[in-house]
Amino acid sequence: MTKSTTRPAGRGRPIVTSHAEIERRAFELFGERGFAGTTMADIAREVGVGTRTLFRYYPSKNDIPWGQFDQTLIHFRRLLTSQSEVIPVHEAVHRAVVEFNRFPADSQPSHRDRMRLILRTPELQAHSVLKYAEWRIVIADYVALRLGQDPGGWLPLAAGHVSLALALTAYERWLDDPDADIVDAVEQSMASLKDYLQAAS
């Protein structure tokens, strides 16, 4: 996406129309007013666009903390399918989930701020359940493909649920420790997937 530099009448800042800038400014408002106290109209005014324009980027305020989630899931599928079929399926899932959770240290909003909002904001929990389901399906599809099973079978579905639980466990510990590294946390947590898949398959 590109940024427009056309200045609206009566405003000193340029119109901004990038996902990244919308998220950055939205998180500034969330920090100042709280998530519940910030409206899409507030974000639109801060960004310098109309509310209807903002809704074309994000269907709801709840979608903003998740960023361009559809694109991240495409990336996740690619990480999984790029794993060598020589390595066991549990190792492939492990490696892909770890790689999926590598983020630039200078990202804005920071990954820590983003995940703290997603995991610890009551108003977001129902929406997050939908996002978690989409993430689990990516793993279930891959495990089913590797094992020649139905994606709706118990093992692919369980692999998705277990992987999500392990990743969320890593994030909870990471958020509680400002010195922790999320990649290390996910690496340690996902290591237990090996025993689960080996015992179940």
List keywords for this structure.
0% strand; 10 helices; 201 residues; mainly alpha; Tetracycline Repressor, domain 2; Arc Repressor Mutant, subunit A; 2 domains
Descriptive account of the structure:
It contains ten helices and no strands. It has two domains: 19-64, Homeodomain-like (Arc Repressor Mutant, subunit A, Orthogonal Bundle); 68-200, Orthogonal Bundle (Tetracycline Repressor, domain 2), CATH 1.10.357.10. Helices cover 64% and strands 0% of the residues. The protein has helices at residues 19-33, 40-47, 51-57, 69-81, 89-100, 111-120, 125-147, 154-176, 182-190, 193-200. It has 201 residues and is an all-alpha fold.
What does this entry show, briefly?
The protein has helices at 19-33, 40-47, 51-57, 69-81, 89-100, 111-120, 125-147, 154-176, 182-190, 193-200.
* Unreliable spans: 1-13
| Strand elements, count | 0
Number of domain modules: 2
Percentage of residues in strands: under 5%
Major pleated sheet = none
The radius of gyration over CA amounts to: 19 Å
* CATH-defined architecture of the largest domain: Orthogonal Bundle
How would you spell out the order of helices and strands?
HHHHHHHHHH
Number of helices: 10
- What is the CATH class name of the largest domain? Mainly Alpha
Tell the overall outline: elongated
How far the N terminus sits from the C terminus, by CA atoms, comes to 44 Å
The residue fraction in helices comes out at 55-70%
Assign the CATH superfamily of the largest domain.
Tetracycline Repressor, domain 2
The overall pLDDT, averaged over residues, is 89
Question: What name does the CATH topology of the largest domain carry?
Answer: Tetracycline Repressor, domain 2
Structural class: mainly alpha
